[in-house]
Amino acid sequence: IVIILAANVEGGVNNWKRAEDWSIERTSILNKKIYSKIHGYNLIIKDFTKKKKYSNEFRESWQKFDVIRSIMKDNEFKENTWFFYLDLYSLIMEPNMSIEELIFKNLNQKSFQTLSYFNPNKIKIDIPYLSFGNNDNSDNNNNNNHIDDNISLIISQDCYGFNLNSFLIKKSNWTNLFLDLIWEPIFYKKLIDINGYLNEERILEYYYSKQSWIRNGMLFLPNKMMNSLKKLLYNWKDRDFLVNMNGCKNKFNRNCWEEMEFYNKLSKNLRLSWFKKLF
């Protein structure tokens, strides 16, 4: 498993990076470094400085796909390597929980491959979902830890639909085709002009509804499992794995630095033994 962390978001292009911005970055990076070291994962910190090729409409938010594609081309990573993408404004609250334990253990009991359980945007698919491959194998179905070879993208949803602030993606032929399609400028421009889609989540929802091969490669997990939103879902009593402070920069009544500091201290406090809390 390789963790990809987006850092230096915009690189101070739109605004000067303040002391709070540097502090947020240090806290988030250290949080992922500690987690990676505990479990022996590779950590790749990618510079998300704003660049001209991402400046078309809202395409700067698509930079994550370009970064993932470039990393996967590295010969260091073999087929079937899983990559865990995380936004900067995320914090792992339970660092002792491995991804294998959190997600891949009993995956069949935790996950969904259709939107029947939760479909906030009322997505309609053009043809019924069809399962191709190992899902029909009775031996695999009896193994709750088995991951269908067709699955290459594991995401969650929030009240706005697909969420790509935290997701797992596997190096595979499916992923190569998917990344080429979603980055294709002709398709992108067409979707902007005809349907008005702007960000990567809505584009993915469109392809999910129209392309059966994309549906066949995706899996959904409950949001609280790997992407608890700060205000809506995160609950320290449930010991949620990760808190996401998505939107803290764009809301006038929120402060990213204060939120990051609060959850960083809370995470440390949750890991203290009851004895140490007395002193």
From TrEMBL:
Record bears the keyword Transferase: yes
Cellular compartments per GO CC: mannan polymerase complex
Pfam families for the chain: Glyco_transf_34
Domain of life: Eukaryota
Key word Transmembrane helix present: no
GO MF annotation, one: alpha-1,6-mannosyltransferase activity
Keywords: Glycosyltransferase, Transferase
GO process annotations (BP): cell budding; cell wall mannoprotein biosynthetic process; division septum assembly; protein N-linked glycosylation
Family classification: Belongs to the glycosyltransferase 34 family.
Protein name: Glycosyltransferase family 34 protein
